[in-house]
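Deliverable D5.2: sample structural annotation.
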Amino acid sequence: MDYKLFLATFATIFLAELGDKTQLATLSLAAGGSSRWVVFAGSALALVATSALAVLGGEALGRVIPPQWLRRGAGALFILLGILFLASSAPDSAPS
C-alpha cells in the first residue's frame, strides 16, 4: 500500500471538507434527527459513494487525457469558479 499517497489524499480531502456544505448539512440533520448514528452512517455512505464515482471518473479520464492536463483543467476550473463566485457576491455600487 502506498501510505504516502493514502495520507496525502486523507489530509487533502479532510481539510477540504471541513466547514463545507456537506458537513453543515450533516450537522443540521444530526441536530434535528433522533439518531446521530443513522445520520453518521448515511452521510459516510454518501461520501464513500461520491468518492467512488470520482475515482472511477478520474481513472477513465486518465486513460484518455494525460494527468498533467487534468490537473491544469481542474486548476483552471477552480479559478473560473472562484472568479464567478466573487463576481456574483459583489455588492452593487449604485444605491437603490
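Annotation notes: The longest helix spans residues 36-64. DSSP finds four helices and no strands in the chain.
The annotation will be released with the project's public dataset once the embargo ends.
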